[in-house]
């Protein structure tokens, strides 16, 4: 599993509801799997460097059976460069995939753009995961965007746990545990996500009563160097909203500025 120091403490999200995808920075594969493991089956690998995959003769592509996904999680997928996959339910469906659909998948993995929305009845897939330097640039398609909102609610609390470790009696740091963010709060951020928003754990403030995570709207970016540059400019100005964790009630709330 990743070392705590490696975990990105800024989350950028640009939501495209029409085409059912999210562009993101700061959400990594291991966080995706831990949040959505119940919905994952086998993974057909479009771009990867995983050495313990199996080979499918029909598509001439590698795949990871469900039982081996956690081994892939433990690999350093960030170092692959391009890391792209689509999930599928059954081998029978994969072995019946038409040539046209396979061509669309190869294009998708190569260009990270869809020719048509990439949800296939043969595969029964819920996701398409297209990353370059995983956690730096991720474009993820969701058959049901509710899965993304669930992921976001989990990832924020996960990252806060890593950002604020606690020490045991031996002085060893360990991850704190925080409740997931309420779904209605995540959904209240949809309008900001559509414009391109950053939530910063790096910029969090706290006192005895609460932890505050600032949120800025910075626009639509596909180049994450440009996104981060814009984020660094934005932190000099008041944020649009704050996600607040109440330490006493252990509940989340939102405040608009």
TrEMBL record:
<protein>
    <recommendedName>
        <fullName>Oxalate:formate antiporter</fullName>
    </recommendedName>
</protein>
